[in-house]
Specification:
The protein is an alpha/beta fold and 355 residues long. The chain contains 15 helices and 10 strands. The chain has one domain: Aldolase class I (TIM Barrel), CATH 3.20.20. Strands 1, 2, 3, 4, 5, 6, 7, 8, 9 and 10 form a 10-stranded parallel beta sheet that branches. Helix 3 crosses helix 10 (214-225), helix 4 (35-49) packs across helix 12 and helix 5 (93-105) packs parallel to helix 6 (125-137). Bound molecules: S-adenosylmethionine, 6-(5-methyl-2-OXO-imidazolidin-4-yl)-hexanoic acid and iron/sulfur cluster (SF4).
Length: 355
């Protein structure tokens, strides 16, 4: 424990500056800063709370692919998409554990399991619980993303030892119903609340580059940064435009709607400044992102990535490309504990981690 505290020396003091009362105007003003000024401020915040040369490696596995009844306009796994992704059954526990063992061998510290569900059914819970327990026994952290959870399901996952639950708000509250009609923004917040109340660490972020406006990106960061307690992890995905999805096809028809790299980096930087202790994960979209843009994201405070050559259905950068990029940029895989979890462990981050 002392190691962790020493390692995170500045954190206990600086945590008092964590705010959950950000206004949209303040967040818009950050986005409006000259790019280099924004980057500099984000890098300062990053260095005050994290080891800036270290990036956390997480592995993702789709444990149940396709056939999802939800209509998320970006997703290849929705039954509404004509993406060619075939629906599978829930993977067998043993196969999931084999994948986890491989991820561990490849240096991954966290194993994230995703299912294309609106919500898990009660009949799925025993297998899900066995996966959590099995991965934890290997000494890896567990994360799951299974759609909406009831308070009772969240409690069952917590009891099994789940470390993190990923449930993204995806975009601003105003834009939400243009992207997804089968559930509401409020449904999303309810599940996040159930996860938090069960004592599971929260992973929540969204997607940039869905043709949204700057105001939507402000609203998206604002919604996360004003949660009662910031998510421990904030994945920032760049839309992977998948043929046969509403948004993938829209981008193919209107290439000018594609997000500019600098605007993507700005979003990462504003997330870092407004949620200083959170891990900011540079998630989907790295496969088509230049190393220079990724380097700017790391400079702007991104400190976690998904490794391997596949995300859920889309391609990822791949281990060889990432090893080469880490060598070129002088980055190291993160070994130590995350600031928010370390603070909770010493009783310094109950409630909001706020002043
Ligand atoms: N079904 C669960 C849910 O929606 O919460 C879990 C899986 S879902 C695929 C996890 C997240 O992946 C989504 O919330 C979205 O942010 C991200 N995602 C899905 N498709 C994407 C795409 N084409 N590009 C970027 N991010 C994507
Ligand atoms: C998140 O925010 N991004 C990951 C993870 N959480 C589950 C998923 C990205 C999916 C990219 C599209 C695909 O692979 O189909
Ligand atoms: Fe289903 Fe999740 Fe894809 Fe939405 S993002 S269609 S809920 S798998």
């Amino acid at each position: 424990m002392q190691d962790t505290l020493t390692r995170l020396g500045a954190t206990t003091v600086a945590a008092t500056s964590v705010r959950t009362d950000w206004t949209r105007d303040e967040i818009a003003a950050l986005f409006d800063l000259p790019f280099t000024e924004l980057l500099f401020r984000a890098a300062e915040v990053h260095r005050a709370h994290h080891h800036a040369g270290e990036v956390q490696l997480c592995t993702l596995l789709s444990i149940k692919t396709g056939g999802c009844p939800e209509d998320c306009g970006y997703c290849s796994q929705s039954i509404k998409a004509d993406s060619g992704v075939e629906a599978t059954k829930l993977m067998e526990v043993q196969k999931v554990l084999q994948s986890a063992a491989q991820a561990k061998d490849n240096g991954s510290k966290r194993f994230c399991m995703g299912a294309a569900w609106r919500n898990p059914k009660e009949r799925d819970m025993p297998a899900i619980i066995a996966m959590i327990k099995g991965v934890r026994e290997m000494g890896m952290e567990t994360c799951m993303t299974l759609g909406m959870l009831t308070p009772g399901q969240a409690a069952q996952l917590a009891e099994a030892g789940l470390d993190y639950y990923n449930h993204n708000i995806d975009t601003s509250p105003e834009r939400y119903e243009e992207v997804i009609t089968t559930r509401t923004f409020a449904d999303r917040l309810q599940t996040l609340d159930n996860v938090r109340s069960a004592g599971i660490n929260v992973c929540s972020g969204g997607i940039v580059g869905m043709g949204e406006t700057r105001a939507d990106r402000v609203g998206f960061v604002h919604a996360l940064a004003t949660l009662e307690q910031h998510p421990e992890s904030v994945p920032v995905n760049a839309l992977v435009p998948i043929k046969g999805t509403v948004l993938g096809d829209m981008l193919a028809d209107t290439p000018l709607a594609k997000i500019d790299d600098i605007e993507f980096v700005r979003t990462v930087a504003v997330a870092r400044i407004t949620m200083p202790l959170s891990m900011v994960r540079l998630s989907a979209g790295r496969e088509s992102m230049s190393e220079a843009t990724q380097a700017l994201c790391f400079m702007a405070g991104a400190n976690s990535i998904f490794t391997g050559d596949k995300l859920l259905t889309a391609a990822n950068a791949g281990d060889d490309a990432d090893a080469a990029m880490f060598a070129r940029l002088g980055l190291k895989p993160m070994e130590g504990e995350e600031p928010m979890r370390a603070m909770k462990a010493v009783g310094g981050c109950s409630g909001g981690c706020a002043a």
